[in-house]
Every structure is written in C-alpha cells, then in structure tokens.
Amino acid sequence: MTLVSTLPPSPLDDDGPGRSAAPVYRKGLALKHEVAGELAADYHSVLVDEVRAAGYQWQRGRLQIHLAREFGFCYGVDRAVDYAYQTRRRFPHRSIYLTGEIIHNPRVNDRLRKAGIRFLNDPEEDERRLGADDVVILPAFGVTIAMLRQLQGQGCTLVDTTCGSVLNVWKNVLQYAKDGFTAIIHGKVKHEETQATASQMLRYPHGRSLVVLDRAEANVVCDFIRHGGTSESFLSGFAHAVSPGFDPVRDLQRVGLANQTTMLMSESLAIGEMIHQAMVDRYGQEPKELAKHYRAFDTICSATQDRQDAVVALLKRQDLDLLVVIGGYNSSNTRNLARLAGQQVATFHIADAECLLSPEEIKHRPVDHAPPVSVRTMVSETRSHDWLPRAGAVKLGLTAGASTPDSVVGQVIERLGTFTANDA
Hints:
By secondary structure, the chain is of the alpha/beta class. It is built from 15 helices and 16 strands. It is globular and about 70 Å long.
C-alpha cells in the first residue's frame, strides 16, 4: 500500500524493499503466522470470548456486567501491533525504534519496550543519530512529512503501520490542498494524527490548514468567515493551530472539512454544519457558488463510530447503574467513549484492572463532559470512593477504547467479579 495515491514520487511509494534508498514495508514482513501465538498470549482473553458467546453478559453474585457489542482493538490497531511483532522477529539483531507510542495504550507500549524496541520520543534517544542499520516503525497515527523525509534521508529501514482510516483523511486533505482549499481539521492540535494530517498540506506550496478543538473554537472561525476581522486578532488565538504563512483573510475563503479519526462524531458533524452555515451566510446557498467555497467529507474512522454507536445502544438497551470505560488516559477515542456515556450514567474511565482498588475505591481519569478549553492540559488520575453500590443488584456497563486489548478487558472483568463473588 502506498502512502496515498496522489503523492509525488518518493522512495516511500515503494511497496517493499527494492528500488528505494530507504526500504519501506507497508504490508507486513511475511511473518504473520510466526508471531500469531505470541500475540495471542499477550493480548487474547478466553474470558472475553466466553462473555461474547453468552450474549455479552456476565454475572458474579449481585453484579451483572453488560459488555458493549463493539469494543477494544480495531483492525488498524491490531495490524500495527502485529507489524511491530513481525519487525522484532524479522530483525533480531538490529536496533528497532518507534517514532513514539504505536497506539495510546501503556500496556502495549510497555510490552514493546520489553521486547527491546526503543522510542524516539524518550529523552535519552536522538533520531539524528539513526542510519542505514536502524529500523524505524511508523505508528498507526502516521508521522509528519518532516519526520518521513528525515528518516528517508538517513536511509533507515521503515515499517509503516499507518492506519487506513488515517490514510483516507490524508487523501482528502491532499485534494483540498491541490484545489486551493484550506483544510479545517477537527482535532487536538498536539495529537500525533492531527499533526501528521496537517503536515500533508505542506506537500503543496499553497497548502494551508487550521485545527479547531471544539464548537467554541469553530464559532470563532465562523464569526471571522461571516464578518471578517484582522489577521492579528485571529492568529492571537490560533497561532498554535495553523500552518506556516496562514492568513485568515485569504485562507478562510475556501475551506474543506476533515477530522482526527478518533473524535466524537456528533461533534465533528456539528462543527461541519456550523462552518457550512457560515459559508452560506457569506457566499449564499446557490449550490455551484457554494461548492467554490466549501467541501466536506465524513472522515471519522468506522471503528471509532462503531464503538460510539455500541455505547449508545447499550445505554438504550439496559438501565445501567454505572459504566466503566477501559483504555489509555491519553487515548482520544477512549476519552470520547467516556464523554458519551457520562452524559447519561455515572462513568469511570480506568486504564486497567489495577485501577479497581476495592469495591469502595477506584482510580480513574475524570470524564471530559466537554473537550478541555486548552488542549495543552492533561487531567491527572483521581480517586473516588463508594463508586460501586454496596447493596442490591448492580448492572454495570463495560466498554473499551480501540487501543485496549482483550487481555486487559478480561482482567477488569475478573477483578470486578472478585468484589461480588460472595454476595447474594
């Protein structure tokens, strides 16, 4: 698989080692069967299989767990982890690096570290020292154009695990850039995927991008589209979120919508409609004229949406007492699952089973009932008491983000069962 079909010729366009100065693998390393057992041992759960077979329900004592019908590892994450294991097997005597976390799950990243894979974003590492003897894995989020070109220039062997859903977004924003449209990206400006997507615009000399976090930021953009203003005033609030040379007076006349694939779909759609209406107000609603100024594509990952839909369905189907969401605290899709559930029921976002301290105490990340005003902040873990009802039957909903393996979900179920196994 090439990065995207519209990219200019590059050594990175090869499907495997051969012509390019920097070999790149995009379809695995032909060792899938050899690593299958190791992957299953690390990430599979017999208990989770049993819960699925029992209609996504499991009971111990007075506790009844209802598992969402879509949860945990998605195809893109499973593929990325599989490729990392294949890489370690294929190059046992070479230094192997990841540009950063392969996915946002601490357990998975820790296992890769234990396998001897080093992370270039660790303080002790220096990517400038890499050379032709080194192997670098590109994560599921993708990497920026600048990083790709640097690694290519250093002659590293590359293993590209970029998710297909991310590549689809890149294809759309590249078309925006080619046609002279600014990409407005709904996402978190410091998220690896959003940075990689925004960098795609730089493949064209006049490519421009703007990242908006939420409806509040989108409203500022809409106000500028409708009424104009000074570039200085606009950039004072978005200097961190625009491409080099961005001029809102010029670059907000023609815009195309995109998003980080793991955002909350309802919010992405709402932001798209806000900007669409602002363009109608500015340029009129005659279709041909509006098409000169506004474009939009649905670029939410199908797996992200499936997991969000499954939580909504679970809440409609069951009258739950509480819901637990499992996944890395820096996982965008996991945090959005917690946000979605938290609108209707008491919700706890935990990293793993170790967060379940007792029936009386739980460690968790507070639910974002709205995106943080600043993406520069990271809410820390907290503790809550009396989180599990002490008496009577308890109906607990359970789901997990797309970067959470079944093994972690199974450990959480087992731990929950110990709290109520002897209850009537």
